[in-house]
């Protein structure tokens, strides 16, 4: 940075003189350092593979590796089960215990942690003093280390607060003590040592690398470029491994609370400070690219889908059965549709456009619900995203074959074979529609129960607004009481409005959305839009608001539309004024005491 005042010529000359002086000093210092550091490591290019250390938990491809090493005449040292397995493939394997002069101890916790192993990995071949130390202690060098780690992230799932067990797909119950034993110590140490010394030592961390490594042996050894790439993969692997353990340990230690399970009712009048688990003071997240997208929200923006390593729930676990590649906007809409469908208890269908529901319904059958969701706003439904919470069957597919209808994506827990065949062969848009299966399960587990959202230079984190509301905590604040027949509609409307963008208003007939006003800067505008969308269907319907009415001006619009009841959180300093307006209009109003903003 150029200080103020250096704009004029004398100041510029002074700056140039100062910079020349600094550069001269740097040059002299650099030269002196070059002459002083006569032992600097100079990496070599090709390193022949003559002796390797192998210790792998995952035995996949081990026979192929053993035969390749044997054919090349490579000497092998190994431990325990790996040594037994490789010996069974006809390889002469040196036991690590014979190298260290010390047996495995502490139930195998200590095997390779010994100078005769690590000095053989870390010695620099171009340093006479390193080679002198090896000779003095009769230590032989390793040209490569082949190690994969205990499968902590695949065997151990989420720590469950109710019972203190760890559950996963591969293990029904894993106690914390068992999980701790799966924390690999020697393996990551070996990998890091070899990766650090990649100038002279190759490191292989996955069976996927075996063929490439064997080919390199046949060419006369690994090149410096190859070893650098191997080292990068190795450090990436240990970083991922440590991050997974750190997240689990934080939950186990109680530093990161597990989110409230989906479907657990929460009292609307509860103090959040009494019920909400604490937010972590530090949060580590390791993401991997799952899907490279054609572009982002607009064609000039590059984009991809990333997911926490090891998670396959939510959109991270989607399975596309058919259709064109998913776009960035498709995924945003798909998330909005699936999250609302997951909040609805009965057979439900949700139609989303630009992340907002333009139709949603529950019914006795999925096909009936789908029909009601599509007719709520037919113009918006064209080119929309459809999500359902039950398997998509033939009757649902036939509904989508109606003339003039087109949807971008259909998401369901599963598709019947009949539905799949109809959707991929019959409609004119069969080549364009994407059919996506979404797995069940809590998608927030991999992020410690937190919903994450990016802002410029930072991440916002919160526990998701996915807990069910408790109608027992609601109260009627007007003189008129809603008719019993409206009870289900009120609950449905208040569920729908929470997934609309604020300011949000939902008008519902029974368990069908018929009008929505969202993303408005004033609540009265949102009311006006929702009522206009509903048209005549507003008469006798219920209206839900995601937050309180700041003024009584919306009540007049609601009365003229013939709305039968209102449900809203309350909490405005003008609540008495709004209640008086509702009483004057003869409209029942329910306060829930819980706001559902969605920005």
General form = elongated
Architecture of the domain at 51-149 and 184-252, according to CATH?
3-Layer(aba) Sandwich
Kindly name the structural category.
Answer: alpha/beta
Distance between the termini: 39 Å
Verbal overview:
The chain is of the alpha/beta class. Among the domains are: 168 residues, Rossmann fold, CATH 3.40.50.1380; 130 residues, AICAR transformylase, duplication domain (Cytidine Deaminase, domain 2, 3-Layer(aba) Sandwich), CATH 3.40.140; 121 residues, AICAR transformylase, duplication domain (Cytidine Deaminase, domain 2, 3-Layer(aba) Sandwich), CATH 3.40.140. The protein is built from 21 helices and 23 strands. The chain has a six-stranded mixed sheet with strand order 10-15-14-13-11-12, sandwiched between helices. Strand 1, helix 2 and strand 2 form a beta-alpha-beta unit. Helix 9 packs antiparallel against helix 11, helix 19 runs parallel beside helix 20 and helix 20 runs parallel beside helix 21. The longest helix has 29 residues.
Topology:
Blueprint: H1 9-36, E1 51-56, H2 62-71, E2 75-78, H3 80-88, E3 93-95, H4 96-100, H5 115-122, H6 128-136, E4 144-148, H7 152-155, E5 158-159, E6 166-167, H8 176-181, H9 186-196, E7 202-204, H10 210-218, H11 224-252, H12 272-275, E8 287-293, E9 303-308, E10 319-322, H13 328-343, E11 348-353, E12 356-362, H14 366-375, H15 378-381, E13 384-388, H16 394-400, E14 407-412, H17 417-425, E15 434-437, E16 451-455, E17 458-462, E18 475-476, H18 487-497, E19 505-509, E20 512-517, H19 523-534, E21 542-545, H20 553-561, E22 565-568, H21 575-585, E23 589-591
Parallel strand pairs: 1-2, 1-4, 2-3, 4-7, 13-14, 14-15, 21-22, 22-23
Antiparallel strand pairs: 5-6, 8-9, 10-15, 11-12, 11-13, 16-17, 18-23, 19-20, 19-21
Helix pairs in contact: 2-10, 9-11, 14-16, 16-17, 19-20, 20-21
